[in-house]
Every structure is written in structure tokens, then in C-alpha cells.
Amino acid sequence: MGGDDECRRLRSGRHRGGVMSLLSPIRSWWHALIHRARTNHDVEEELQFHIDMRAQQLIASGLTPKEATRQAKIEFGFVDVQKEKYRTAIGLRPLYELGADIRYSFRSLYRNPLISIAAVASLAFGIGATSAMFNVIYSTVLNPFPYADADRIVNPSLLDRKQPQVPTWFALEPAQYESFVKAKSIESVLGFMLAAQPETGGAFPEDVGVAFVTPNMNSFLGVRALLGRGLQMSDAGQNVIVLSYKYWQRRFGGDRNVIGRTLELDHQNLTIIGVMPARFTFTETVGNVDAYIPWTAARSQALFPWIKLRSGVTPEMADAEFQGYVNAFKRQTPTHFPDDFRVDVQPIAAPYIHRTGHTLALLFASVVCLLLIGCANCSVLLLSRGEARLHELSIRSAIGADRFRLMRQLLVESLTISIAGAALGTALSFWLAELPLKLMPNMFPQEASISINWLVLGFSIVLALLTGVLFGLAPALRFSRPDVSQMMQARGRTSSDTGFRSLNAFIAVQIALTFILLGVAGAAVTGFMHIRSMTLGYDPHNVGFISVPLKRDPNKNQQAYANYVDQLRDAVATVPGVSFAATGSGAIPPSQPFDRIGRPLTFELLGQESKLPQHTLVHLVSPEYFATLRIPLLRGRIWNRDENRNGDFVAVVNETFVQRYLSEYDPIGQQVRSDGLKNDGRPANITSPHSGDWRQIVGVVGDARNDGLERPVFPTIYVPYSTFMWDGTCFFFRAETDPQGFIRQLRSALHAVNPDQRIRGNRVETLDDALQHQTVWIQQHMFSVLFSVFGGLALLLSLFGIMSTILFAAGRRKNELGIRMALGARRSHIVWTVSRTTLTTITCGIAAGLTLNLALRKLLAHWMPANNHSPWILTPVTSLLLAASAMACLLPAIRAAYANPLETLRDN
User: Fold this and answer.
1) What is the DSSP letter of 344?
2) Angle at 276 between CA 271 and CA 279, to 5 degrees
3) Percent helix, strand, coil in the chain (nearest 5)?
4) In the list 87, 313, 342, 816, which could disulfide-bond 309, CB 3.0-4.6 Å?
5) What are the start-end ranges of the H helices in 399-553?
6) What is the pTM of this model?
7) From the CB of residue 254, how many other CB atoms can be counted at a distance below 10 Å?
8) pLDDT tens across 844-867, in order?
9) Half-sphere exposure of 373 (CA within 13 A, CB side)
10) CA–CA distance, 739 with 624 (Å, rounded to integer)
11) b/e per residue, 785-814, with b = 16+ CB within 10 A?
12) Which H helix or E strand runs over 241?
């Protein structure tokens, strides 16, 4: 045992000795690095001590003090050489050389300010745009929500197997909710239900968007309140409320003493216990929310679930388990679920990824092209400057600098430029990153926040290093092996054609990438102009609409509700400045209406059989709807007010409906019906007695956009709104001025009919806004702006690169051009001699760009309604690029042609 212990001690000692021998030089190196000034002073003192000691010995041997000191210094050698040996011994020489290279690179940049500024600016635009897009992707797709473990929060929905492209949420009764929480895949569940509550007690009832949530909201989402506290389990059954930041600002003016005050909603006093922070909106994902109340105060006890999965559980794994639960729930409450469905579990960020993922990918690819153009431009500038430095580099090589030493120096200069460009570009990126969010506010989560974070800064640093190597490698390889004998014989006269060929290659790359960006910009602008000028089939100008809730009263029948809605419509029509007013439910163009099941309804025509289901949109409107929106009547008539109030037996169809389903028949007098108009037993729906019976088509109206701007008009049936009434409706009105200025008059008019009647959202929306909130409108507007900016920057950088190339070509051939002019060459010949190679390169670059543009047409067709290969786009782009490039070539070439040949020859 004693021998074993001794062996272990010996092995341990050897191990410690090995570690110590490894750590000792590292400690010495680190100490010398962080105490560099002190180390230099110590080395100088040590060397001086030895010199003094040797001088004393020489004085003792009979030399004079001055001669002894001189002899001692000769024996020890130069002090700087001894310092260099010391640095090499402790491993600091590479760092000192790197520091010297960095200092020299700054001096070199200072001596060439125009080239330095141009190179840094080129990279700043490229790195700034690329970092900005990375920031947008990170902030809106990878980390858009301020919730704890947001990547594990999922939103379960149902997909009807007949129409799986339309997901729908499902609500759970309290018993179902308690059962669902026990699923093995679930860590916790947040239940919520949305409702609009009136703020009572004032002159007019204000509409407040309320989320009734389970009291575990604070622990589930992990977001601390800005003021007070969030909801907690002890708040169940209590009359408390938590305000959103926007509502707190709008209603209370940001008063920080709001905690403890009461707010009256629907004649019930609630105590304010907290205010959520500005970034927490809980809005786009679930609806418009102004306040949060414990769900026990809700009239409806059904809850929509948000689920936080256990760590390691994927949405696909949860699908199978949840399917069994929801199948059991369907048997308990069949009206809450479709006939044939499957459960689909998706992360809460999935809708935004699906909506914006391809768009952000295209924008990121575009800024990478801009970055490559900037890198090519920097390579052109460094190659041009490098040719002028061949004599300097040859001298360095002649006195002993090897290729690695020269390459390192050139790469350090490139990295200095790239880091300076990255610093400027990173500052620029936080402004650029806001542009997509401002141009497409409805496309991204409202909780997404552009901010400085270490991931974005790290990306910018890595990008700076990569770009520095990328654009600096070609000049470093080119100039790290200068022809010493040739350069020393004739300075500046014999630079080879290799550098010029490299310049032309970079110019061709710049022109090709610029052509692609300009082509995409042309397609984006053309597509947006096409959308702006397309025929809508209705006139949205000065048309506003308001949404009003209808409070259910079990003592009122369908006729009473229809009469009440008519009274409200008449009140809107009497507002001064309103020329037409109409009622419409789910009939806000140009979007597809949101009917009770969220998709087109099936229908049938009397006397016609179809093997496949036929689908149509159903708009529930009053007869004044067509005049208000100026939708033309093509044939027949519109139903009258008596028919409208009864809600039965009549219908009007659009032109597309006739062309698709009644092209061989006279549409007037045909009978149509839809089972989707029947009452399914839900208390929120009120229908006429014969809502699902046959209806006679009495008129045909023109097509109005109803399925978005990018798709054809969908077949549509218009029926009286009293056929099927929900718990709310819309009133459309045509005004003589901006409709949004009528909110006060409209509230007064509705208040005169019913003091408790409120307007949802307390605002007037316009059909112009509805048009501009369309996804394709927002997307094409953003594309047209951003790609125009990208294309303009790319063109500017390319032109600067062309001018640099021509100036370099003229400079390297200055002696030759001087001789030509002295012998009588015409200036036009000089211009052609200088610029012809670059013009040929530009032509090749345009041809390459045209080829790439045509190759990308199928890919870009996903985003661009206009063809990027259309001659109406390619011809102007080619002409613009040719004209601008020719101008960039000719200006410096003409300058060279007008140089004085005698001065040129004298200088050389």
C-alpha cells in the first residue's frame, strides 16, 4: 500500500509539474502583455546595467569612460535588437508586430483619405444593411416575444380535413380545461377569452378590449408588471384589473398613481392592481387587448388555451396526445368543433414565420448582394492603391520581409478598413432595422423590439472579419510577391496586367449584382404601381366604417333586432356630411369576409346538380350597401327595405358568380340556398325563420375585390343582413371629407338611439386603410422602397468602382499616353484607349446580370406580381446601367485625355 501511495504521489507530482510547466510561460506572456510599459522599462534597465558593468571593466583595463561605454554598446549590440530577442523569447514578438502593422495601417489610411473614406463607406452600407436584416430576423422571428420560455409556448388549433388551409381555434369548457391541463406533454396552460366591455360612467360608453385570463398569467408568461403587479392565483373571484401600457397612456395619461384606483366596466367597479410594460401587448397574437381580468368574472366560461410544453417535447409529439383529448371534448360539445378535423400544434411564432419568412429571406439575400458589391468595390480600391505601392513593397521584400510578412501587413490594412466600416455600419443598422417594421407594421409581432444585443454585435464583428479577409485576400495575394528586380529598376512603369485583370473581374461582378438588384427594384416598383392602379370594382375614397356590438336580449326576436339595426343605420345617415350609409356584416373589401366558420360557404342551385361542392362568399348587407360603395347594378334590382327587414327569399350575386355557375342560364329568377346560413344553435347567432331556404336571385352587381388584391374576385352572394345576425355589425358611410373626423358625431347619433350603444375600438376605419393594410400592398410597398434604396446604393458603389478602375488605368499608362499625345494622337483616341477594356467588362457584367436575372425569375415570381424578366423592366434597367457606367468611364478618361503631355513626360 505504501508503494502504491508513493507511485500515486510521483504521478501526481509529474502531472502538477507538467501543468506548471505549461502554465508558467502563459503567465509570463500574460504578465508581459498587460504590463507592457513596465516590461519594456525593466528590459531597458537590465540591458543598461550589463552595459554599465562591461564599461566599468573596460575602464579598469585602461580605456576612457567614453570609449569604454562605446565599446560596451558595440559588444552588446543595438538595444532594439536585444529587445526584439527578448520579445521573441517570451512569445510577444507576433503581437508587437501586429500592433506595428495596425499603427502603420492607420497611417496609410490617413495618407490616402479619399480611398479610405470610399472603402469604409462602401463597407458601412453593406455591413450596416446586412446587420440590420439579421437584427430584424432575430427580433421578429427568432426572439419576438418577451415571454419566459417563449419557444415552448404553443397555440393549438384545429384543421378541417376538407379545408386544412384555414386553422381555427377551439374553446374549452371549465371541466374540459381542467382535464386538458393534466396531459403529460403539458407543463402549464394559460386560458383566456376575449371580449369587448363598455367603460360606463362617462358621457359616452367607451369600448375596452378585455382578455379574461386564468390567474396564472404572470407565472406562465414570466413578464413583470411595470407598475403594481400582475394577476396571480389569489385574484380568482376578485374584482381586479391589470391595464395594458397603451390603454394606461390613452385613458390615464401615464399617471403613475393609478394603482388602487377603480375603473367602471359594464357598470361594475374594478380595482386597478397593475400596469404591464410597453413591450407586453398580448395583442396581435390573440386580439386587441386593453386590460386583463380574472376569467372568473367572464359571462362565458369557455377558454382558449395557450400551452407551455415540457422541456424536450416537440409540437409533433404533442399532436398525437392532444388529438385524443380533443376527440373526447368533441363528443361532449359537438357544436364547438368541425365534423372531421385534426389537431395542429404550432409555436406562437409560427404564423409570423409563415407570413414573413420568405420576405425576410429575399431581403437578406439582397443585402448580401449589396455587401458583396461593397467588398468588390473595396478590392478594386485596394488593388488600385496596391499598384501604386509596388515600389514600397519591393523595397520591403528586398530588405528581408518574406511573403507571409507582407501578406499579413496587407490583410491587417484590410481588416482595419472592415472594422471601421463595421463600426459605422452597426450604428447605421439600428436605424435601418426599423424600416421594415415601419413599412410592414402588421406583418410582424407587435411585441418585437429592435435593440442592441450581444448576438447582433457579435454578428457584426464576425461579418467585419470575414469581409476584411474576403476583399483583402486578392490584393494580399497579388502584392505579397512583388518582382523586386523589375520594380527597383523602374519605379511605377512596369506594373503587370495581372492587377488590371483582377480589377476588371471585380467590376464585372459588381455590374452583374447591380443589374440583379436594379431588375428586382424595377419589378417591385412596377408591381406596386400595378396594385395602386388596379380596378377594385368599388370606390373606397371617403368611405368609412364603424363596428358596433349588439347586446343580446332573450326577450327580443329577429324582427326587433332588425328594426334596432335599421334605427342605428338611419342615425348614421342623418349625420351632417354623410351622403350614404349602409349595414354590412363581414363585407369589408378587399378582404374575404370572416363568416361564422371563417371560410367560403357551400351552396346549391335549384335544378342543377354538381358532383363537387360549390363554394361562394356570403355578404350580409343592407340595400344601401351598393350605392354607398358605388358597386354598379348590372341586371335586375336590389331588394327593398321591407325585404331587408324580413331577411328572406331574395339574393343578389356578383358577375363572377354568374360566369362560373350560371353562364348558360338567365341568372334572374334562379333559386339558390346555403346551409351555412342556418342557425347552428349558438345563442350569439340570430337568424330569420327561413334563413336556410331557397332564395330567388333578383339582381346581378359588378365584381368588387373580395379575396385580396393578388387573387381573382370570388363568387359572391349578397343577402339581407337580417338573415343571419351575430353579436355585432358594421355601418358603412360615404362622407364629404375624411371619414375619421366623424367619430364624435357618430357617437352622438348612436347615443341618441341608445345611451348604452358603443363603437368598438372607439374609432372610424376607412376602406382606404383596409386597402393599404392588405398583405400584398404592404409587401410590395416595402419591396419598392427597400429595393430602390438597395439598387441605388449598388449603382453608386459600382460607378465609384468603375471610376477608380479608369483612374488606375490612366495612371499606370500615363507615360504611354503622354508619348501618344506628344506624337499627335487625338483626344478621342486617348479616351477610347483608356476606357475600352472597362467598357467591354461592363458589357460582360450586364450580360451576366441579365442571365442571372432570367435564371431567378421563377424564384422571384413568389414575391413579385410583375415579371422581373419583362422587356418593359429589363430595357430601362439595361439602359440606365449602360448610360451610368459609360458616364463613369468617360469622365476620368476625358480628364486623362486633357492632361498636358509635356508635364506628363517631365514627371516620368
Assistant:
1) E
2) 160
3) 55, 15, 30
4) 313
5) 403-432, 434-439, 454-479, 484-489, 497-533
6) 0.77
7) 11
8) 999 998 888 888 877 777 777 666
9) 36
10) 18
11) bbbbbbbebbbbbbbbbbbbbbbbbbbbbb
12) strand 240-243
Split at pLDDT 50, 70, 90, the class of 80 is low
pLDDT, one tens digit per residue, over 13-58 is 444 444 445 455 555 555 555 555 566 666 667 777 777 888 888 8
In angstroms, the CA 251 to CA 598 distance is 33
Which residue ranges make up each domain of the chain? 1-32, 35-91, 93-144+349-492, 153-348, 496-534+773-908, 543-736
**C-alpha cell, 553:** 336580449
- The CA distance from 452 to 582, in Å, is 49
**Beta strands 695-701 and 650-654, pairing class:** parallel
DSSP code of 139? I
Q: Which residues contact 461 (CB under 8 A, 6 or more apart)?
A: 422
pLDDT of 556 over the 70 cut:
yes
Cα separation, 375 vs 337, whole angstroms: 57
**Which secondary structure element, helix H or strand E, spans residue 341, and what is its range?**
strand 341-347
Q: Residue 285: pLDDT band by 50, 70, 90 thresholds?
A: low
Q: Which residue has the cell 369587448?
A: 196
| HEC assignment per residue over 244-271 | CHHHHHHHHCCCCCCCCCEEEECCEEEE
| Phi then psi dihedrals of residue 168, to 5 deg | -130, 145
Name the pLDDT band for 812 (thresholds 50, 70, 90). Answer: low
The pLDDT of residue 594 = 45
Q: Residue ranges of the alpha helices (H) in 600-675?
A: 625-629, 641-646, 655-661
Distance CA(322)–CA(157), nearest Å, equals 10
Tell me what pLDDT residue 229 has.
Answer: 92
Give the Cα separation of 69 and 718 in Å (integer). 111
Q: Coil, strand or helix: which one is 416?
A: helix
Residue tagged 430584424 (cell numbers): 136
817 Cβ partners below 8 Å, 6+ apart? Answer: 810, 830, 833, 834, 896, 899, 901, 904
As a residue count, the chain comes to: 908
| pLDDT at position 597 | 38
